[in-house]
Specification:
Elements: E1 16-19, H1 23-34, E2 39-42, E3 54-57, E4 60-63, E5 69-70, H2 74-79, E6 87-89, E7 93-98, E8 101-106, H3 116-119, H4 126-141, H5 144-148, H6 158-164, H7 169-184, H8 193-205, E9 208-211, H9 217-223, E10 231-232, E11 237-240, E12 244-247, E13 252-254, E14 257-260, H10 264-270, E15 279-289, E16 300-302, E17 309-312, H11 313-316, E18 326-333, H12 341-352, E19 362-374, E20 387-389, E21 392-394, H13 404-423
Parallel strand pairs: 1-2, 1-14, 2-10, 7-16, 14-21
Antiparallel strand pairs: 3-4, 5-9, 6-9, 7-8, 11-12, 12-13, 15-18, 15-19, 16-17, 17-18, 20-21
Helix pairs in contact: 1-9, 1-13, 4-8, 6-8
Length: 424
């Protein structure tokens, strides 16, 4: 039975209040409910999902920022019926736009016929091929605990880890740096090597895809499993008190346990003692083109980093466009604005080889996401307690890793710790 999402005041006093209906909050609420506890989820927005939302504009389905869905995450496999999401895969690999032309990086185990640029030396020499094979074998087949490694003050960043793995500086600059800039949302490869290995492992073991109905289908599927009336929309929380929470309109919602499952900045404002982590910003531009500039569902990476990457989303999931026009998603690092759109459009003409034809593309929307990911520089703690004080908890990807897996796992941990407190 689908959860009923309301905007009115609640009824009986719940055992726990969860502030925020993003992935972490929904996972926490589901686990608390499964433990036999009553839960109220208070969401400030008009729908569930947090940063994972999909808007409909003139018939186009636009995610709030370019996002992908990875089927390999344990929390994903545990909680979601993947068939019901009608997942549409990306090509395993990417296209690299270089000053010398376009090169394809393909997974030879999945698309051997497309691996010519990689295996014939146009993209990587023997040294880099050997390093790539060794890294893939280690991250894909080693036990997860070995891939996660151990935290420590001398933990390297991604750049040092890639060099230590045997990659040449030229290959790091040509492939790893531009590709990972779009994953980490920073272009210096300063992110923890531990997160690099976890990301590469998830890509090798899973499929990168998108739900046919947009990324917002993922949180909607989670919310549909909650009891009716659990989620209250358009109910922002102003304060966490000793008795529960107070909403923006002054309503007191008492509960023995409160879980703050918001972004890091909001959590720090609601719970004294919680540090707001630094955030990574990204901006995504959406355009409608008369014809598809790239007739395949493949990510195109800009090695000169004028943009991070671009993809024809309607090639991945045709239903994202209402007609024969192509939906193009392009992301740039940082918080860009509408004034940057002409520059981005001009670069797209170079990346897709369409030249001035992009002048006829329709600009549909711009999404600037200031805290799209938490900064994950070393030493990185992959998971930490959610307990802030007796009966008060905080969860989210900023308490684990910046990923769907990190958000869901943090919510699950908050539920375990809150349930133990409530039962005690």
């Amino acid at each position: 039975m689908a959860a009923q999402h309301t905007s009115g005041r609640g009824g009986a006093r719940p055992d726990a209040v969860v502030v925020g209906a993003g992935l972490a909050g929904l996972a926490c609420a589901l686990d608390l409910t499964a433990a036999g506890l009553s839960v109220t989820v208070l969401e400030a927005s008009d729908a569930v999902g947090g940063r994972m939302r999909t808007d409909r504009r003139d018939g186009f389905l636009l995610d709030r920022g370019f996002q992908v869905f990875n089927t390999s995450y344990p929390q994903v496999r545990r909680r979601l019926d993947l068939r019901s999401l009608r997942l549409r895969p990306f090509t395993p690999g990417m296209l690299l736009h270089t000053p010398d032309g376009r090169l394809r990086f393909a997974d030879p185990t999945r698309r051997p016929r497309q691996a010519g640029d990689l295996l014939r030396g146009r993209l990587a020499g023997p040294r880099d091929l050997a390093a790539l094979a060794a890294l893939g074998a280690r991250d894909a087949f080693a036990p997860a605990a070995a891939v996660r490694g151990r935290p420590g003050g001398r933990e390297p960043d991604a750049r040092r880890a890639l060099r230590a793995a045997g990659f040449s500086p030229a290959f790091v600059e040509r492939m790893w740096r531009p590709f990972l800039s779009g994953v980490f949302l920073e272009d210096e490869l300063a992110t923890s090597a531990r997160f690099l290995h976890l990301v590469w492992r998830s890509m090798l073991r899973g499929t990168l895809c998108l739900p046919a109905g947009g990324i917002g289908a993922v949180p909607r599927a989670l919310a549909a499993r909650l009891p009716p009336g659990t989620v209250r929309l358009e109910t922002p929380v102003r304060e966490v008190t000793g008795e529960g929470v107070v909403t923006a309109d002054g309503e007191e919602v008492p509960a023995r346990a409160v879980v703050v499952a918001t972004d890091g900045r909001t959590a720090a404002a609601l719970l004294p003692g919680v540090d707001a982590p630094a955030g990574r910003a990204v901006t995504t531009f959406y355009h409608a083109a008369p014809l598809s500039p790239l007739p395949e569902p493949t990510l195109l990476v800009d090695t000169e980093r004028h943009v991070l990457n671009t993809v024809v989303l309607s090639e991945v999931a045709p239903g994202r466009s209402p007609d024969t026009r192509a939906l193009v998603s392009t992301s740039v690092l940082g918080a860009a604005g509408e004034a940057d759109e002409p520059r981005v459009r001009a670069r797209l003409g170079e990346l897709y080889g369409t030249g001035s034809a992009t002048d006829r593309w329709e600009h549909l929307a711009t999404y600037a996401i200031p805290d799209a990911l938490p900064a994950m520089e070393p030493p990185l703690v992959l998971s930490r307690t959610t307990r802030v004080a007796p009966g008060r908890y905080v969860c989210g990807d900023h308490r684990a890793t910046g990923s769907v897996q990190g958000a869901l796992a943090s919510g699950a941990r908050a539920a375990r710790e809150a349930a133990a407190f409530l039962r005690a």
